[in-house]
Write a structure and sequence with these properties.
Maf protein, 6 helices, five-stranded mixed beta sheet, 5 strands, 161 residues, alpha/beta
Length: 161
């Protein structure tokens, strides 16, 4: 994964582009993976871990969207991606929400072990949405699977730019 992140950082740096993240179930894992590689400070503008609905809403996610679609939905991931991009004034924003290896007593709706993520490209006003079912035995393995898929998607998006 490190080689992919190096490539991501290089492409974003070469194109003078930045990224921000609003993560829930990955708990900052994407930002951590990016900041583990030299040069990350040139491209990562801001990262927020919004584990609770309350802090998603404080960061700009519409309560109406959460109420209508649930916190575990592509609509919420889109709101997260858009609002973190706007907040940080970055070119790309990533929003991640889902359930990993546990039942959420505060949000009983939604499929277990399903993760939604959206990448918002501000310059083209375009969303790239995806979801996946994780089947690993541990939260750590499932987070890594999600982060790997997001990095792959980001590389595809920015290479096509």
């Amino acid at each position: 994964m490190d080689d992919k992140i190096r490539e991501l950082i290089k492409i974003l740096t070469d194109n003078n582009k930045t990224i921000s993240t609003m993560e829930s179930c990955t708990g900052g894992g994407l930002a951590n993976a990016i900041t583990s590689i030299e040069g990350a400070s040139d491209i990562l503008r801001f990262s927020a871990v919004t584990y609770s609905n309350e802090y998603k809403i404080k960061m700009g996610v519409s309560k109406d969207v959460i109420d209508k679609y649930t916190v575990y939905s592509i609509e919420t991931a889109r709101e997260m991606a858009y609002n973190i991009t706007r907040f940080a004034e970055s070119n790309y924003g990533v929003g991640i929400t889902g359930k990993l290896n546990r039942v959420d007593k505060q949000n009983l709706f939604g499929e277990d072990n399903k993760v939604f993520f959206s990448i918002y490209d501000k310059d083209n006003d375009k969303y790239y949405d995806s979801d996946l079912i994780v089947k690993g035995p541990s939260r750590r393995e499932n987070k890594e699977e999600v982060i790997n898929k997001i990095i792959d998607n980001l590389l595809k998006i920015i290479k096509d730019y």
